[in-house]
Amino acid sequence: MEITKESITDWLKTLQYTICRSLETEDGLAKFKEENWEREEGGGGRSRVIENGQVIEKGGVMFSAVSGKTPDFLFKEKEHSISGTSPQETTFFATGISIVIHPQSPLVPIIHMNIRYFEMSNGTKWLGGGIDLTPHYIVDEDARFFHKQLKSVCDKHHESYYPKFKTWADDYFFINHRKETRGIGGIFFDRLNQNEFLNFEQNFAFWQDVGRAFAGIYVELMHKNKTKPYTPEQKQWQLLRRGRYVEFNLVYDKGTKFGLETNGRIESILMSLPANASWLYDFKTKQDSEEQNTLNKLKKGINWIS
Amino acid sequence: MEITKESITDWLKTLQYTICRSLETEDGLAKFKEENWEREEGGGGRSRVIENGQVIEKGGVMFSAVSGKTPDFLFKEKEHSISGTSPQETTFFATGISIVIHPQSPLVPIIHMNIRYFEMSNGTKWLGGGIDLTPHYIVDEDARFFHKQLKSVCDKHHESYYPKFKTWADDYFFINHRKETRGIGGIFFDRLNQNEFLNFEQNFAFWQDVGRAFAGIYVELMHKNKTKPYTPEQKQWQLLRRGRYVEFNLVYDKGTKFGLETNGRIESILMSLPANASWLYDFKTKQDSEEQNTLNKLKKGINWIS
User: Which of A7, A129, A182, B2 has the least CB density, counted as fewest CB within 10 Å?
Assistant: First the structure.
């Protein structure tokens, strides 16, 4: 396909549709509800949310395509500042899909996926995205499966991508005040255009494959774990881990901050928060427990594949 | 008393003791548990936490007294920057009490109180603090009682203080992305030394009275409301309101941000988060319901007293 705003938008809408269908089928009970919304400054979105399913307690597959005057902060971020143009002179267009799924069972992991495309009237454009997994209980076999799937998506396009984007995810999904990663990471990338490895069209193909890979990976993890029995203690541990998820999203996540600061649609932005979460004062895991085992593996730099 | 670091610290410790006794007595079941902790860079604290009481589900009365090299950010905040000294040259001492109480019943309000004293080796010193109330359901009579009590504490020292510090609380305890106040506000003040109204000693006396007023005000609100029956729907509404409390504390609260960024004791800082909280996608209150009535009153600038 020719890569234009319109073709990207159409492709993302189709992807939203196919992902929702896959998740509904595996859930077997709940259906996505849809809201179309408009943004005063330009553009809008199509939010699809599923609640109270058999497998999924709360999840969203959110599409948006917004435009307007380029926000000032893009010119202020030191590491990525765009020189040569003042923000007043440009308009932007941004489109993407964001997904967070909170399952009912503590034995099914939380997953997050985002792919986004950004362009400005001055010709600047880039791709960003990633998929990361937050198991309430880390199971090595599932972690290996997850990372292998992501590696194979990356390797198809360039062998440097998995190690590079895996490290980026480790660094990004880090709850600094807890000194814990949010989960087992995955891949994360931003501001991808052309680089020393691939041209823009090739990177666009990689970006599409990330989006296409999501449903298959998560449905397999749902299917494998959804019928396993669990205890009330495991459910309580899930609520505590969800508390950490809330901490990451409200304190660190750039997409959330951006949305809250730029008058985004609050219900779409905070869809990522779980139906319920818990904080107990100074909770300690038991030695050699599964909970302790999980905490021990919430670290950067683990090679999940070898 | 002569106002010194030592005398302030001693007084705060006694206040922590008397507040905990009052709350325990009114709760009638749970007792505070104590942890003493030390800070690597200097000083430490005495955390007292109560959980699973008859009236209080989770609450903390936290004392701390910390010292060290003055953090750089104090010299960076535009509105309050301290000129004439570079941060490298000064040390600081800060002591205070922070309280958050999350009750079991949705008909008992959440309360927060903080009083703090700060000084630097260059002679700068100030007082800060406040009390604010977050009812899950706003009851005009209780709101009037609460604000009248605070006004009388303020009026005893200077008539300008209640209007000034009430407005400050309205502005501070505001969830900007929701366009809602956190609750019905109260009073909030910072960087109080000498001003056009009172000298430092007089302001110190005001500050002490804020601390002394807390227990009486909250115990009365606990006592009045703790035995009222409530429905599961009201409990669910409480969990949603607690979700907003989490949003405020993690996204906006300066004390929380300061703690997370300066390597504070995480369990003490995040004691303010409730045992459990909830987020439902795009939840709407029913017209003319008590929930809608509460939302309508989560606004700045309401005169609760007249």
Answer: B2
| Contact yes or no for A276 and B277 at CB 8 A | yes
Size of interface A-B (CB pairs under 8 A): 72
| CA distances for A171 relative to A174, A189, A259, B148, angstroms | 6, 11, 21, 50
pLDDT per residue as tens digits for the range A237-295? 999 999 999 999 999 999 898 888 877 789 999 999 999 999 999 999 999 999 999 99
**3-class DSSP assignment, residue B59:** strand
Among the partner-chain residues B60, B177, B266, the one whose CB lies closest to the CB of A266 is B177
Helix axes B161-172, B140-155, angle to 10 degrees: 130
Q: What percent of chain A has pLDDT over 70?
A: 95
Query: Residue A57 in contact with residue A103, Cβ under 8 Å?
Result: yes
Q: What is the pLDDT of residue A47?
A: 96
Topology adopted by domain B5-296: oxygen-dependent coproporphyrinogen oxidase (3.40.1500)
pLDDT at B84: 58
Rounded to the nearest angstrom, the minimum Cα separation between B176 and chain A is 8
Instruction: Write down the H helix ranges in chain B.
Output: 5-27, 140-155, 161-172, 200-225, 232-251, 254-261, 266-269, 290-296
- Separation of alpha carbons A113 and A53, rounded Å: 20
Burial environment of residue B99 by CB neighbours within 10 A (0 to 12, 13 to 18, 19 or more): buried
Give A150-194 pLDDT, tens digit per residue. Answer: 999 999 999 999 999 999 999 999 999 999 999 999 999 999 999
Cα B271 to Cα B112: distance, rounded to the nearest angstrom: 12
CB contact under 8 A, B278 and A279: no
Q: Which residues of chain B have pLDDT under 70?
A: 75-88
How close, in Å, is residue A112 to chain B by CA atoms? 17
Contact B177 A280 (CB under 8 A): no
pLDDT in tens, A50-65: 999 999 999 999 999 9
- Mark whether A157 is an active-site residue: no
Measured CA distances, A83 to A79, A190, A194, B49, B288 (Å): 11, 18, 18, 51, 53
| In chain B, domain spans | 5-296
Contacts of A176 in chain B (CB under 8 A): 260
Q: Name the 3-class secondary structure at A95.
A: strand
Q: Which of A191, A46, A50, A79 is nearest to A127 (CA)?
A: A191
